[in-house]
Amino acid sequence: MLAVWGYAASALGYALLLLLLLTSRKSGLAKYLLILATAATCVWSLSPFLIGEMTVERLIVFDNVKQLFWLLFLAACLKDNFTSLAGVLTRPETWLILALPITGLIIPLGFDVNDSWLFLLQTVLALQVLVLLEIIYRQAGENRWAFKPLILYLGATNLFEFVTFANALMVEQIDLTYIAARGFIYTALIPLLVLAIRRVQHWGVDIFVSREVVLHSSLLLVAGCYLFVMSLIGYVVKYYGGQWSTTIQITLIFLSLALLATVFLSASFRTKVKVFITKHFFANQFDYRHEWVKLTQSLESNQPGQTVYQTVLNAFLQAMDYQSGLFIKRVDNKVEYLADQEAEPLCEEQQVVVQQFFDFFEQKNWIIDMAELRTKPYVYEGLKVNHAILNKIAFQLVIPIYRGDTLWGAVLMSNTNDTSRSLNWELRDYLTAVTAQITNFLFHHEAAKEVAENAQFAAFTRMSAFVLHDLKNVLAQIDLILCNAEQHKDNPEFIDDTFETLHHTKARMDKMLRQLSEKNAEPTSQQRLCRVSACIEKVIEQRCATQLPKAELMVNSEIEVVLDNDKFANVMYHLISNAQQATADDGFVRVEVSHEPQSEQIVVTISDNGSGMSKAFIQQRLFTPFDTTKGNAGMGIGAYDAKAFLEKIGGFLYVQSEEDVGTVFTLNIPAN
User: Fold this and answer.
1) 119-150 exposure pattern, b = at least 16 Cβ within 10 A, e = fewer
2) Under 8 Å CB-to-CB from 201, ≥6 apart: which residues?
3) I want to staple 245 with a disulfide (CB 3.0 to 4.6 A). Which of 26, 100, 241, 524 is the partner?
């Protein structure tokens, strides 16, 4: 009696929903198919009142009629450009979808089959609806919010049907408790269908078969096949089990659910299934549209406090679904670590192998697969490596990174043996494209950083450099006057030189103040023909004479060149003064001038036997603006300014130094 009330409530609810649809002003194919599906569900709810004795065959017929119209509605939702029922029915995919319910309608009418086969058909039919719902939901995109109530309605009803007939298949008869509950369940779910009708303004989703859908749908099919096998086992248990059949049936159901949960939660199982599907069902290994969007999002998702190098490494790892890696840069013959992810630094033996890889990358832009290198070394022609050390290396892929045609660094990646990939032609092409995109992002970031530093220097540093150098020049001249005042204050020639120096000092101060008031970052260039040795000699006598050891000037040969005398004097003062400060009082500072006719250059060398500098300091700090070892006594821009001046006039500055031995600055000045 309770079951009758449930079916009556369901029939009344779907009848009211049918009236609502008929009075709606919306038009379109989806509306009419929804009216048919709702009407079929209403008739299904009235089935206990329309027929006398409810047999399994009659129950299956009404179920298949209901499922037929709902599947036809879902078939119309698979594309968004259907305008007529004929357009839906002319698609082969539609008849493939409708094949199961049509078969379920024909079999009871023309054949005498066992009820178990009918239960199996209904179980597979419910599973088919669940698979279609998953495809529609995953491909709905921005319309997922609108489709969600429909997915929940059909998903809940068909999941209940799946459980009902899977259980009937196990015990070879339908549990009347499930049949009695159907009416109430369908009635309770009507609000979801009403909400779906109100939400969806445009029925239809343009479907394509993606790898993710195939993977998840395949897992659903695996689940269905597994439940089918369990059903057969349940049937055998019931037939032979006697009084233990119920206990064994419950145990098998529990074990089946536990095993299915393990299957769906197992990452390695899903990976193996995905690899199998990729190899056998797709021409391409990757869904490139999805992979490219994922790579772009990975590069844009820079976490707070995360360096750009860590972002780059994470993008490489995500592109390959790998777990650990190192991002390294080649600096001369050493390795500089930029970022790491669950990876240890390289030991000395591994660094030797990596250097051999770098030598190979200088010749060939080729990704190295470590497994292939171990088994097929002849593929990597020209790569000479110690295979005994190679076996100790944990990483699996080595991807070179180039800046233009120059090798810049490399990414080393590794993964578990179960999920690592062997390189083929497609994977190499994919990694080449990924590397091009990531390196473009990396070098664009470095270029932007360099532009920002140059802008900062242009706004502040040049002004500070000019002020500092002029103040040092003025101070040196005043120091020179004070040092000689006691000894030569009664000498008229000294008095004349002093006044001349003061006039020169005042002129420089006036010039500096005028430039500061006019906000000029640097003075206007005043180039003229001059002798380099005369300029250097004046710097030594007037600005560097108060410091020890006294600089010695040697002129081998020279010709006149065109220079900005003031700027060149500032450069020489800074380099000579630095050499004096780095050298003990009993040491030496020598300045040598030579003319090289072959190269048309004037070569000026400033050598000392002072404290010297390390190679790392020269590479990383010497020419970096604002980086000084003098504390508040310096601005850290003198060496940078000297190098910039020489490069601006077409020359260059070269430094050789060794700690506790000395330093040699070589200035090459164009003489043409």
Assistant:
1) bbbbbbbbbbbbbbbbbbbbbbeebeebbbbb
2) 146
3) 241
Written as six digits, the tokens of 69 are 């119209």
| Span 494-514, pLDDT tens digits | 787 777 777 777 777 776 676
Q: Could you identify the residue written with the tokens 């009758």?
A: 4
How confident is the model at residue 594, as a pLDDT?
A: 92
Question: What digits encode the pLDDT tens for the residues 82-133?
Answer: 667 787 788 888 888 888 888 888 877 767 777 778 888 888 888 888 888 8
- What is the pLDDT at residue 225? 63
B/e letters for 564-592, b = 16+ CB within 10 Å, e = fewer, are bbbbbbbbbbbbbbbbbebbeeebbbbbb
Q: Are 71 and 129 in contact (CB under 8 A)?
A: yes
Q: Is the dihedral of CA 631, 636, 638, 639 positive or negative?
A: positive
Q: What angle do CA 274, 277, 283 make, to 5 degrees?
A: 120
> Mapping DSSP to helix (H, G, I), strand (E, B) and coil, where does residue 37 land?
helix
> Six-digit token pair at 303?
């976490």
How far lies 20's CA from each of 42, 43, 112, 343, 469, in Å?
Answer: 13, 17, 41, 63, 88
pLDDT of residue 207: 36
With a pLDDT cut of 90, the percent of the chain lying above it is 4
Task: Give the least confident one: 136-145, 166-175, 452-461.
Answer: 452-461
Find the Cα–Cα–Cα–Cα dihedral 157, 160, 164, 169, rounded to 10°: 90
What's the rounded mean pLDDT across residues 382-399?
Answer: 80
Q: What's the rounded mean pLDDT across residues 22-37?
A: 75
**Structure-token pair, residue 206:** 């343009």
Q: Residues 34-58: what's their mean pLDDT?
A: 80
Residues 200, 133 contacting (CB under 8 angstroms): no
**C-alpha triplet 547, 553, 556: angle, nearest 5°:** 170
Closest CA to 541 of 484, 602, 609, 467: 484
Q: Of the candidates 21, 23, 102, 112, which has an alpha carbon nearest to the alpha carbon of residue 65? A: 102
Q: Is the pLDDT of residue 632 over 50?
A: no
- Amino acid type, 541: E
The 3-class secondary structure across 46-112, one letter per residue, is CHHHHCCCCCHHHHHHHHHHHHHHHHHHHHHHCCCCCCCHHHHHCCHHHHHHHHHHHHHHHHHHHCC
Dist. CA 435–CA 431, nearest whole Å: 6
Backbone angles phi and psi of 446, in degrees to 5: -65, -40
Q: What is the DSSP string of 502-558?
A: HHHHHHHHHHHHHHHHTT-SSPPP-EEEE-HHHHHHHHHHHTSTTSSSPEEEEE---
Question: What strands lie across the sheet with 601-608, from one edge to the other?
Answer: 551-555, 589-596, 601-608, 662-670, 652-658
Q: Are strands 589-596 and 551-555 parallel, antiparallel or unpaired?
A: parallel
| Backbone phi, psi, residue 627, to 5° | -105, 110
